[in-house]
Amino acid sequence: MSAPVIDPVRPAAPDTPAGRSTKAQRTTPARFDTALGWNDGPGLAWALRVLLCLIALAVFAAPFLTIFSGAFTTNPSGSSLSFLPHGSTLSNFTVAGERGIWDYLGNSLVIAGGGLLLQLVVCTLAAYALARHRFRGQALVMMLFMMTLMLPEEVIAIPLSLVLGDVPVVHLDLKGTVWGVILPLGAWGFSVMMLTEFMRDIPTEIEEAARLDGVGELRMLWQIILPLCKPALGVAGVLGFIMIWDQYLLPLIAAKDPTDYTVTVALSILRTDPEVGSGVVLAGAVIALIPSLIVYLLLQRSLVTGIAAGATKG
Amino acid sequence: MTATVPAPAARRSPGKRAFSKKAVVPWLFLAPGLLLALVFKFWPMVKGIRLSFFDVRPFLGDQWIGLDNYTRVLTDHRFQDAIGHTLILGIGQAVGAILLGFALALLLEGQARSLRILRTAVFLPAVTATAVVGELWRLMYYPTSDGLLNSGLHLLGLGPVPFLDNPDIALYSTMAMGIWIWAPYNMVIFLAGLAGVDRSLYEAAAMDGVSLWQRLRYVTLPAIRPALMIVLTLATIRGLRVFTEVYVLTGGGPAGSTDVWMTRAYTLGFTRNDIGGASAASVVLLCVTLLLTVMVNHLRKRGGAR
Q: Which of A283, A287, B36, B45 has the CA that lies 20 to 30 A from B289?
């Protein structure tokens, strides 16, 4: 790649090609590894760092323990929460199930799966054309895809809801169907741009050799370019999933009635139901949380790489 | 790169057919993306701009009323309040999340395995769906003394705080949640910036005998300034279009004290069915967003040229 993707998880020192140097190769002492010059050895600074780390952990991660402990705790009063579960029960999940939480999860999974698949296909095709072809109007197309990033759902929500009710030319009503959520997520400028940048750096020799063998455009993309793009596809996949799972306004305006909601939107229905307590809401939150948690923990490195790349390269 | 005509003119005459076929290929690959963007992004944008000049009446036909929607929206005191709330929330959230994110990055910088695990844990808020975070914080902010945060305050001998029910502090409660969501995200960007700082500069600074503060001020900060500018502007844009956090946490209440631009436009459009007014409000937001995005791109280009 022309500009190296900076992986903040494992910063490679510029003078040591292996990245993580052994003690013997090391030219600079460890205390110059970080901006604050933290020392590994025990001491006052070390104790301070451990304390601050524990506070950070409590502030940012402990609330997630509350979700889990609350979801497995019966609490009819509906207000007491703690970091540790007292007793354990599945009754909250049973009640949430009676309120249709699994159907909402089903909606979410179909939308996330379908939306991500569509997004990856659409963005890969566009990126291939932008990176490996030269044509009239290339800069304009690139600008159009960049503009999709400036038009988030919030900004165009009202007219978008009208368009979803009556798609121009074909006059389809997408409201109440999963297509109403999936299709608007198809062209995501961020993925197009990131994949384009990645594909541009694949050497042309590979492509020329394949062309001499009579490889067509689709096979070229599928068999030559895509296998080389696996890291970038991983990043696009994780970020795309997180982005789709985070959607709130789009599923809200694309729904015809509440049964079309995704699980994240449906949490508000659970909350406003006077007969269920906060334990049930938390059970719903756990169900809404787990898929994105799994994706994050499995692929967190590529996610972090992607954010860093998006922020530093653009 | 800027030349858009790929083949020299001489080669065009013998195989004009082949050339045009070749010219069509990229457009076939681009078609799905362009079509989706056109139908679900640009067409709504155009439609929204058009509707903002009309009095939208579902069965009677739309009526052109010029800038009336705009004057109505901009003189509405609830929208004026919403501008203030949006600015306070957006700027406060952006600045808070940047400061906290930078502090986190300085704290969690390093290669030890334990630090990597810590970073994974601290990043959790940024990958959790905003609606889920909102529900979680609603419960943490529970106003009676057995709510999670209030029981903590109770231990310190402080009375229960009605975080979301008091019009004076509801906006700041919302801001705290926004900072909590975005600080870890900024942390990752800053970590990427910190990883790029030349270590020998730290060593040289140590030889010159500078203090830790001077080292941060004159070595670290200049190195991550491009990242800082971009994070700040992106965060401001994000703050302008804030919707989900507020909608889930407070719904704009109590007494409109947390109403932001988008929740106001949503209420106008979907609850009160004033499509024209809501469109005008959206167009105003669109213009500000576009303006800021152009600024970001300008900053990016300048950052890239350095």
A: B36
Q: How does DSSP classify residue B252?
A: T
A231 and A146 in a single domain? The answer is yes
Establish if A37 belongs to a structural domain: no
Q: Which two tokens stand for residue A14?
A: 């510029």
- Predicted confidence at residue A15, as pLDDT, reads 41
Q: Are residues A66 and A108 in the same domain?
A: no
B20 touches chain A (CB under 8 A): no
Interface residue A311 vs chain B (CB under 8 A)? yes
A149, part of any domain: yes
Q: How far apart, in Å, are the Cα atoms of A134 and each of A131, A138, A141, A172, A218?
A: 8, 7, 12, 35, 17
Q: Please give, rounded to a whole number of angstroms, the shortest distance from the CA of B302 to a CA of chain A.
A: 12
- Of residues B150 and B80, the one with the higher pLDDT is B80
Residue in the structure block whose two tokens are 């999933």: A241
Domain count, chain A: 2
What is the ipTM metric for this complex?
Answer: 0.84
Chain A partners within 8 Å of B151 (Cβ): 80
For B141-194, what is each residue's pLDDT tens digit? 887 777 778 777 888 878 778 888 888 889 999 999 999 999 998 998 888 888
B26 touches chain A (CB under 8 A): yes
Domains, chain B, in order of start with CATH, read 79-304 (1.10.3720.10)
Minimum-distance CB partner of B26 among A64, A129, A248: A129
Domain shared by A124 and A68, yes or no = no
B82 and B255 Cβ atoms separated by less than 8 Å? no
Residues of chain A neighbouring B287 (CB-CB closer than 8 A): none
Q: Nearest-CA residue of chain A relative to B129?
A: A246
Q: Which residue in the set B43, B185, B244 is minimally distant from A163, CB to CB?
A: B43
Domain with A67, as residue range(s), is 59-88
pLDDT per position as a tens digit, B96-132: 999 999 999 999 988 888 888 899 899 999 899 999 9
User: Which residues in chain A have Cβ-Cβ distances shorter than 8 Å to B191?
Assistant: 8-9, 308
Is A53 touching B (CB cutoff 8 A)?
yes
Q: Report pTM.
A: 0.85
Q: What are the Cα distances from residue A96, in Å, to A90, A256, A264, A282, A284?
A: 10, 22, 13, 9, 6
| Whether pLDDT at B197 is above 70 | yes
Residue A27: inside a domain, yes or no?
no
A182 plus A205 within the same structural domain: yes
* Strand B63-64 versus strand B54-55 pairing type: antiparallel
Q: Does A69 share its domain with A205? A: no
A279 with A160, same domain: the answer is yes
The lowest-confidence range among B55-59, B90-94, B282-286 is B55-59
